[in-house]
Amino acid sequence: MSEGAPTDTRGWAGWRTVLWLGVVSLLVDLVYEGARSITGPFLASLGASALTVGLVTGAGEAAALGFRLFSGPGADRTGRYWRWMVTGYVLTAVCVPLMALAPALGAAGLVFGSAMVLLERTGKAIRSPAKSVLLAVAARKVGRGRGFGVHKALDQTGAFLGPLLVAGVVALTTHQWAGLLVLAAPGAVALGVLTWMHGYVGDPPRAPATAGAPLVALPRTFYVYAVACALTTVGLMTFGVISFHLVHEHLVTAAVVPVVYAAAMGTEALASLATGFAYDRVGGGTLLVLPVVVAVVPVLVFTDRVGVAVVGVLCWGAATGVQDSTVKALVADLVPSSRLATAYGAFAAFQAVAALAGGGLAGWLYDTDRTVLVTAVLAAQVVALALLVGVLLRARGQDRQALG
Prior knowledge:
The chain has helices at residues 15-36, 39-45, 50-66, 68-78, 81-98, 109-139, 144-173, 176-181, 184-197, 220-235, 239-248, 257-282, 289-301, 306-324, 326-334, 340-368, 370-403. The chain is mainly alpha-helical.
Protein backbone atom coordinates (compact mmCIF):
# COMPACT_ATOMS: atom_id res chain seq x y z
CA MET A 1 0.00 0.00 0.00
CA SER A 2 1.14 3.53 -0.70
CA GLU A 3 2.76 5.51 2.11
CA GLY A 4 0.92 8.52 0.74
CA ALA A 5 -2.47 7.12 1.75
CA PRO A 6 -4.55 9.22 4.13
CA THR A 7 -3.78 8.93 7.83
CA ASP A 8 -7.34 9.15 9.08
CA THR A 9 -10.80 7.93 8.11
CA ARG A 10 -12.36 11.28 7.27
CA GLY A 11 -12.42 10.65 3.52
CA TRP A 12 -15.08 8.02 3.98
CA ALA A 13 -17.06 7.95 7.19
CA GLY A 14 -19.89 5.95 8.71
CA TRP A 15 -21.91 3.64 6.54
CA ARG A 16 -19.74 4.01 3.44
CA THR A 17 -16.68 2.60 5.20
CA VAL A 18 -18.72 -0.08 6.96
CA LEU A 19 -20.25 -1.23 3.68
CA TRP A 20 -17.01 -1.40 1.71
CA LEU A 21 -15.23 -3.23 4.52
CA GLY A 22 -18.21 -5.55 4.40
CA VAL A 23 -17.72 -6.13 0.66
CA VAL A 24 -14.10 -7.12 1.26
CA SER A 25 -15.17 -9.46 4.04
CA LEU A 26 -17.84 -10.90 1.73
CA LEU A 27 -15.21 -11.81 -0.85
CA VAL A 28 -12.70 -13.20 1.64
CA ASP A 29 -15.37 -15.13 3.53
CA LEU A 30 -16.41 -16.65 0.22
CA VAL A 31 -12.83 -17.95 0.09
CA TYR A 32 -12.20 -19.27 3.57
CA GLU A 33 -15.74 -20.30 4.48
CA GLY A 34 -15.95 -22.14 1.19
CA ALA A 35 -12.85 -24.06 2.24
CA ARG A 36 -14.05 -24.43 5.83
CA SER A 37 -17.28 -26.05 4.65
CA ILE A 38 -15.39 -29.11 3.42
CA THR A 39 -12.37 -29.09 5.75
CA GLY A 40 -13.68 -32.06 7.76
CA PRO A 41 -14.41 -34.36 4.79
CA PHE A 42 -11.31 -33.07 2.93
CA LEU A 43 -8.98 -33.94 5.80
CA ALA A 44 -10.77 -37.26 6.21
CA SER A 45 -10.12 -38.01 2.52
CA LEU A 46 -6.43 -37.47 3.27
CA GLY A 47 -6.56 -40.05 6.08
CA ALA A 48 -7.55 -38.00 9.14
CA SER A 49 -9.55 -39.48 12.03
CA ALA A 50 -12.29 -37.65 13.95
CA LEU A 51 -9.75 -36.77 16.66
CA THR A 52 -7.30 -35.44 14.06
CA VAL A 53 -10.01 -33.34 12.42
CA GLY A 54 -11.03 -31.99 15.82
CA LEU A 55 -7.45 -31.14 16.78
CA VAL A 56 -6.53 -29.56 13.44
CA THR A 57 -9.68 -27.45 13.15
CA GLY A 58 -9.55 -26.62 16.86
CA ALA A 59 -5.89 -25.61 16.54
CA GLY A 60 -6.83 -23.57 13.48
CA GLU A 61 -9.42 -21.65 15.46
CA ALA A 62 -6.90 -21.31 18.28
CA ALA A 63 -4.40 -19.79 15.82
CA ALA A 64 -7.10 -17.50 14.41
CA LEU A 65 -7.78 -16.24 17.91
CA GLY A 66 -4.60 -16.71 19.94
CA PHE A 67 -2.18 -14.87 17.67
CA ARG A 68 -4.36 -11.79 18.05
CA LEU A 69 -2.81 -11.41 21.50
CA PHE A 70 0.29 -10.23 19.59
CA SER A 71 -1.23 -8.72 16.45
CA GLY A 72 -3.62 -6.51 18.43
CA PRO A 73 -0.97 -4.76 20.54
CA GLY A 74 1.28 -4.67 17.46
CA ALA A 75 -1.37 -2.77 15.51
CA ASP A 76 -1.91 -0.38 18.43
CA ARG A 77 1.82 0.28 18.82
CA THR A 78 2.47 0.97 15.14
CA GLY A 79 -0.85 2.55 14.23
CA ARG A 80 -0.56 0.73 10.87
CA TYR A 81 -3.96 -0.89 11.02
CA TRP A 82 -4.30 -1.15 7.25
CA ARG A 83 -0.94 -2.90 6.88
CA TRP A 84 -1.86 -5.55 9.44
CA MET A 85 -5.27 -6.06 7.88
CA VAL A 86 -3.98 -6.45 4.31
CA THR A 87 -1.20 -8.84 5.36
CA GLY A 88 -3.78 -11.14 6.92
CA TYR A 89 -6.03 -11.02 3.88
CA VAL A 90 -3.11 -11.91 1.57
CA LEU A 91 -2.25 -14.96 3.67
CA THR A 92 -5.81 -16.26 3.46
CA ALA A 93 -6.11 -15.60 -0.28
CA VAL A 94 -2.93 -17.62 -0.94
CA CYS A 95 -3.25 -20.55 1.50
CA VAL A 96 -6.77 -21.68 0.61
CA PRO A 97 -6.07 -22.42 -3.07
CA LEU A 98 -2.81 -24.11 -2.07
CA MET A 99 -4.81 -26.68 -0.09
CA ALA A 100 -5.84 -28.11 -3.46
CA LEU A 101 -2.29 -29.49 -3.86
CA ALA A 102 -2.59 -31.80 -0.83
CA PRO A 103 -4.06 -34.89 -2.61
CA ALA A 104 -1.15 -34.86 -5.06
CA LEU A 105 1.43 -35.05 -2.27
CA GLY A 106 0.71 -38.63 -1.20
CA ALA A 107 1.61 -39.43 2.41
CA ALA A 108 2.60 -35.82 3.03
CA GLY A 109 -0.82 -34.57 1.90
CA LEU A 110 -2.44 -34.62 5.34
CA VAL A 111 0.45 -32.69 6.91
CA PHE A 112 0.45 -30.13 4.08
CA GLY A 113 -3.33 -29.71 4.11
CA SER A 114 -3.33 -29.29 7.89
CA ALA A 115 -0.53 -26.72 7.64
CA MET A 116 -2.51 -24.69 5.10
CA VAL A 117 -5.53 -24.73 7.43
CA LEU A 118 -3.38 -23.40 10.26
CA LEU A 119 -1.70 -20.74 8.10
CA GLU A 120 -5.02 -19.53 6.69
CA ARG A 121 -6.38 -19.20 10.21
CA THR A 122 -3.22 -17.33 11.24
CA GLY A 123 -3.96 -14.85 8.47
CA LYS A 124 -7.32 -14.18 10.08
CA ALA A 125 -5.55 -13.57 13.40
CA ILE A 126 -3.19 -11.04 11.82
CA ARG A 127 -5.96 -8.96 10.24
CA SER A 128 -8.87 -9.21 12.68
CA PRO A 129 -7.91 -6.80 15.51
CA ALA A 130 -6.91 -4.08 13.03
CA LYS A 131 -10.05 -4.61 10.96
CA SER A 132 -12.22 -4.49 14.09
CA VAL A 133 -10.67 -1.16 15.09
CA LEU A 134 -11.29 0.36 11.65
CA LEU A 135 -14.86 -0.93 11.76
CA ALA A 136 -15.48 0.30 15.31
CA VAL A 137 -14.21 3.78 14.39
CA ALA A 138 -16.40 3.92 11.28
CA ALA A 139 -19.48 2.59 13.10
CA ARG A 140 -19.21 4.93 16.08
CA LYS A 141 -21.74 7.41 14.69
CA VAL A 142 -24.13 4.89 13.12
CA GLY A 143 -24.34 2.60 16.16
CA ARG A 144 -21.80 -0.10 16.88
CA GLY A 145 -24.38 -2.83 17.14
CA ARG A 146 -25.77 -1.89 13.72
CA GLY A 147 -22.32 -1.38 12.23
CA PHE A 148 -20.99 -4.75 13.36
CA GLY A 149 -24.30 -6.42 12.50
CA VAL A 150 -24.50 -5.08 8.94
CA HIS A 151 -20.82 -5.82 8.35
CA LYS A 152 -21.34 -9.37 9.59
CA ALA A 153 -24.39 -9.80 7.36
CA LEU A 154 -22.30 -8.87 4.30
CA ASP A 155 -19.52 -11.07 5.62
CA GLN A 156 -21.95 -13.97 5.91
CA THR A 157 -23.27 -13.42 2.42
CA GLY A 158 -19.85 -14.53 1.28
CA ALA A 159 -19.93 -17.35 3.80
CA PHE A 160 -23.25 -18.43 2.27
CA LEU A 161 -22.10 -18.21 -1.36
CA GLY A 162 -18.69 -19.81 -0.80
CA PRO A 163 -19.95 -23.22 0.30
CA LEU A 164 -22.49 -23.23 -2.54
CA LEU A 165 -19.73 -22.49 -5.05
CA VAL A 166 -17.60 -25.27 -3.59
CA ALA A 167 -20.55 -27.67 -3.56
CA GLY A 168 -21.26 -26.93 -7.23
CA VAL A 169 -17.65 -27.46 -8.29
CA VAL A 170 -17.33 -30.67 -6.25
CA ALA A 171 -20.59 -31.98 -7.71
CA LEU A 172 -19.45 -31.23 -11.26
CA THR A 173 -15.89 -32.52 -10.93
CA THR A 174 -16.24 -35.09 -8.08
CA HIS A 175 -12.96 -33.64 -6.72
CA GLN A 176 -12.87 -31.71 -3.45
CA TRP A 177 -9.52 -30.15 -4.40
CA ALA A 178 -11.17 -28.49 -7.41
CA GLY A 179 -13.62 -26.75 -5.09
CA LEU A 180 -10.66 -25.29 -3.19
CA LEU A 181 -8.73 -24.23 -6.27
CA VAL A 182 -11.59 -22.13 -7.71
CA LEU A 183 -11.53 -19.96 -4.58
CA ALA A 184 -8.38 -18.23 -5.83
CA ALA A 185 -10.55 -15.91 -7.96
CA PRO A 186 -12.59 -14.12 -5.24
CA GLY A 187 -9.44 -13.81 -3.13
CA ALA A 188 -7.69 -11.91 -5.90
CA VAL A 189 -10.71 -9.61 -6.36
CA ALA A 190 -10.78 -8.86 -2.61
CA LEU A 191 -7.15 -7.75 -2.66
CA GLY A 192 -7.91 -5.48 -5.61
CA VAL A 193 -10.81 -3.86 -3.76
CA LEU A 194 -8.60 -3.27 -0.71
CA THR A 195 -5.99 -1.55 -2.85
CA TRP A 196 -8.65 0.77 -4.30
CA MET A 197 -10.24 1.44 -0.89
CA HIS A 198 -7.02 2.52 0.72
CA GLY A 199 -6.99 5.59 -1.50
CA TYR A 200 -10.05 6.81 0.44
CA VAL A 201 -9.78 5.23 3.88
CA GLY A 202 -6.62 5.27 5.99
CA ASP A 203 -5.51 4.57 9.53
CA PRO A 204 -7.38 6.37 12.33
CA PRO A 205 -5.44 9.07 14.19
CA ARG A 206 -3.38 7.82 17.12
CA ALA A 207 -3.50 8.95 20.73
CA PRO A 208 0.21 9.40 21.63
CA ALA A 209 -0.42 9.75 25.33
CA THR A 210 -1.91 6.27 25.60
CA ALA A 211 -0.24 4.47 22.69
CA GLY A 212 2.21 2.68 25.00
CA ALA A 213 -0.25 1.80 27.77
CA PRO A 214 0.26 -1.74 29.10
CA LEU A 215 -2.26 -4.53 28.64
CA VAL A 216 -3.10 -4.49 32.35
CA ALA A 217 -4.78 -1.11 31.79
CA LEU A 218 -7.79 -3.02 30.47
CA PRO A 219 -10.60 -3.09 33.05
CA ARG A 220 -11.29 -6.23 35.11
CA THR A 221 -14.85 -6.38 33.78
CA PHE A 222 -13.41 -6.94 30.31
CA TYR A 223 -11.50 -10.02 31.49
CA VAL A 224 -14.58 -11.50 33.14
CA TYR A 225 -16.46 -10.94 29.91
CA ALA A 226 -13.66 -12.63 27.97
CA VAL A 227 -13.90 -15.70 30.22
CA ALA A 228 -17.67 -15.87 29.75
CA CYS A 229 -17.33 -15.74 25.96
CA ALA A 230 -14.51 -18.30 26.08
CA LEU A 231 -16.90 -20.74 27.74
CA THR A 232 -19.38 -20.28 24.91
CA THR A 233 -16.53 -20.95 22.47
CA VAL A 234 -15.73 -24.21 24.27
CA GLY A 235 -19.29 -25.34 23.67
CA LEU A 236 -19.46 -24.01 20.12
CA MET A 237 -17.45 -26.81 18.51
CA THR A 238 -15.88 -26.40 15.09
CA PHE A 239 -17.88 -27.25 11.99
CA GLY A 240 -15.14 -29.73 11.12
CA VAL A 241 -16.40 -32.05 13.87
CA ILE A 242 -20.02 -31.43 12.93
CA SER A 243 -19.43 -32.15 9.24
CA PHE A 244 -17.46 -35.27 10.19
CA HIS A 245 -20.54 -36.51 12.07
CA LEU A 246 -22.90 -35.74 9.21
CA VAL A 247 -20.81 -37.78 6.76
CA HIS A 248 -19.71 -40.49 9.22
CA GLU A 249 -23.30 -41.27 10.19
CA HIS A 250 -24.38 -41.15 6.53
CA LEU A 251 -26.87 -38.36 7.22
CA VAL A 252 -25.67 -36.46 4.13
CA THR A 253 -23.02 -37.02 1.47
CA ALA A 254 -19.76 -35.04 1.35
CA ALA A 255 -21.10 -33.08 -1.64
CA VAL A 256 -24.14 -31.93 0.38
CA VAL A 257 -22.16 -30.82 3.45
CA PRO A 258 -21.31 -27.40 1.92
CA VAL A 259 -25.02 -26.81 1.24
CA VAL A 260 -25.84 -27.48 4.89
CA TYR A 261 -23.00 -25.19 5.88
CA ALA A 262 -24.32 -22.47 3.55
CA ALA A 263 -27.69 -22.66 5.30
CA ALA A 264 -25.90 -22.19 8.62
CA MET A 265 -24.10 -19.16 7.22
CA GLY A 266 -27.41 -17.65 6.11
CA THR A 267 -28.74 -18.15 9.62
CA GLU A 268 -25.57 -16.59 10.99
CA ALA A 269 -26.12 -13.46 8.90
CA LEU A 270 -29.71 -13.08 10.10
CA ALA A 271 -28.71 -13.63 13.72
CA SER A 272 -25.94 -11.04 13.55
CA LEU A 273 -28.30 -8.45 12.05
CA ALA A 274 -31.09 -9.14 14.53
CA THR A 275 -28.88 -9.08 17.62
CA GLY A 276 -26.86 -6.11 16.33
CA PHE A 277 -29.95 -3.92 15.98
CA ALA A 278 -31.31 -5.26 19.27
CA TYR A 279 -28.02 -4.38 20.98
CA ASP A 280 -28.34 -0.72 19.99
CA ARG A 281 -31.92 -0.67 21.27
CA VAL A 282 -31.85 -2.72 24.48
CA GLY A 283 -28.14 -3.06 25.25
CA GLY A 284 -25.90 -5.95 26.23
CA GLY A 285 -28.76 -8.02 27.62
CA THR A 286 -29.20 -9.20 24.03
CA LEU A 287 -26.12 -11.40 24.52
CA LEU A 288 -27.78 -13.54 27.19
CA VAL A 289 -29.34 -15.60 24.41
CA LEU A 290 -25.89 -16.84 23.30
CA PRO A 291 -25.12 -19.52 25.93
CA VAL A 292 -28.71 -20.79 25.70
CA VAL A 293 -28.42 -21.42 21.96
CA VAL A 294 -24.93 -22.93 22.31
CA ALA A 295 -26.23 -25.40 24.90
CA VAL A 296 -28.80 -26.90 22.52
CA VAL A 297 -26.44 -27.35 19.55
CA PRO A 298 -24.88 -30.72 20.49
CA VAL A 299 -28.24 -32.05 21.66
CA LEU A 300 -29.63 -31.54 18.18
CA VAL A 301 -26.56 -32.13 16.00
CA PHE A 302 -25.39 -35.47 17.37
CA THR A 303 -28.48 -37.46 16.43
CA ASP A 304 -29.17 -40.03 13.72
CA ARG A 305 -32.00 -37.99 12.19
CA VAL A 306 -31.00 -35.66 9.41
CA GLY A 307 -33.79 -33.13 10.01
CA VAL A 308 -32.92 -32.68 13.69
CA ALA A 309 -29.21 -32.50 12.91
CA VAL A 310 -29.78 -29.77 10.33
CA VAL A 311 -31.77 -27.74 12.86
CA GLY A 312 -28.79 -28.12 15.19
CA VAL A 313 -26.47 -26.85 12.46
CA LEU A 314 -28.73 -23.80 12.00
CA CYS A 315 -28.57 -23.13 15.75
CA TRP A 316 -24.79 -23.44 15.51
CA GLY A 317 -24.86 -20.82 12.74
CA ALA A 318 -27.03 -18.46 14.79
CA ALA A 319 -24.74 -18.75 17.83
CA THR A 320 -21.67 -18.19 15.66
CA GLY A 321 -23.28 -15.05 14.23
CA VAL A 322 -23.76 -13.54 17.68
CA GLN A 323 -20.28 -14.63 18.77
CA ASP A 324 -18.60 -13.03 15.76
CA SER A 325 -20.48 -9.73 15.65
CA THR A 326 -22.56 -8.42 18.54
CA VAL A 327 -20.11 -9.79 21.11
CA LYS A 328 -17.46 -7.45 19.65
CA ALA A 329 -19.73 -4.43 20.04
CA LEU A 330 -19.71 -4.87 23.83
CA VAL A 331 -15.90 -5.16 23.84
CA ALA A 332 -15.74 -1.70 22.24
CA ASP A 333 -18.04 -0.35 24.96
CA LEU A 334 -16.02 -1.88 27.83
CA VAL A 335 -12.53 -0.57 27.02
CA PRO A 336 -10.88 2.76 26.07
CA SER A 337 -10.81 3.42 22.32
CA SER A 338 -7.01 3.75 22.32
CA ARG A 339 -6.72 0.15 23.52
CA LEU A 340 -9.25 -1.45 21.17
CA ALA A 341 -6.86 -3.55 19.08
CA THR A 342 -5.11 -4.73 22.24
CA ALA A 343 -8.47 -5.57 23.79
CA TYR A 344 -9.62 -7.49 20.72
CA GLY A 345 -6.33 -9.37 20.73
CA ALA A 346 -6.57 -10.26 24.42
CA PHE A 347 -10.22 -11.19 24.04
CA ALA A 348 -9.38 -13.50 21.14
CA ALA A 349 -6.58 -15.14 23.14
CA PHE A 350 -9.14 -16.36 25.67
CA GLN A 351 -11.23 -17.70 22.82
CA ALA A 352 -8.18 -19.37 21.28
CA VAL A 353 -7.56 -21.54 24.32
CA ALA A 354 -11.27 -22.32 24.41
CA ALA A 355 -11.39 -23.19 20.70
CA LEU A 356 -8.49 -25.62 20.99
CA ALA A 357 -9.97 -27.20 24.11
CA GLY A 358 -13.42 -27.34 22.55
CA GLY A 359 -12.19 -28.89 19.29
CA GLY A 360 -10.12 -31.53 21.08
CA LEU A 361 -12.87 -32.22 23.62
CA ALA A 362 -15.53 -32.60 20.93
CA GLY A 363 -13.33 -34.88 18.80
CA TRP A 364 -12.37 -37.05 21.78
CA LEU A 365 -15.81 -37.36 23.40
CA TYR A 366 -17.46 -37.86 20.01
CA ASP A 367 -15.57 -41.16 19.73
CA THR A 368 -16.02 -42.16 23.39
CA ASP A 369 -19.23 -40.82 24.96
CA ARG A 370 -21.44 -38.25 23.26
CA THR A 371 -23.71 -37.98 26.30
CA VAL A 372 -20.78 -36.71 28.35
CA LEU A 373 -20.03 -34.23 25.54
CA VAL A 374 -23.56 -32.82 25.68
CA THR A 375 -23.40 -32.59 29.49
CA ALA A 376 -20.02 -30.82 29.45
CA VAL A 377 -21.27 -28.21 26.97
CA LEU A 378 -24.39 -27.58 29.05
CA ALA A 379 -22.36 -27.09 32.25
CA ALA A 380 -20.03 -24.62 30.54
CA GLN A 381 -22.98 -22.57 29.29
CA VAL A 382 -24.56 -22.34 32.73
CA VAL A 383 -21.34 -20.78 34.06
CA ALA A 384 -21.08 -18.51 31.00
CA LEU A 385 -24.61 -17.23 31.52
CA ALA A 386 -23.92 -16.41 35.19
CA LEU A 387 -20.74 -14.51 34.29
CA LEU A 388 -22.49 -12.55 31.53
CA VAL A 389 -25.21 -11.46 33.95
CA GLY A 390 -22.53 -10.26 36.37
CA VAL A 391 -20.71 -8.29 33.66
CA LEU A 392 -23.88 -6.60 32.47
CA LEU A 393 -24.93 -5.66 36.00
CA ARG A 394 -21.50 -4.19 36.74
CA ALA A 395 -21.43 -2.27 33.45
CA ARG A 396 -24.87 -0.87 34.16
CA GLY A 397 -23.74 0.24 37.61
CA GLN A 398 -20.69 1.99 36.18
CA ASP A 399 -22.88 3.81 33.65
CA ARG A 400 -25.13 5.07 36.46
CA GLN A 401 -22.12 6.30 38.42
CA ALA A 402 -20.83 8.14 35.35
CA LEU A 403 -24.19 9.83 34.85
CA GLY A 404 -24.44 10.68 38.53
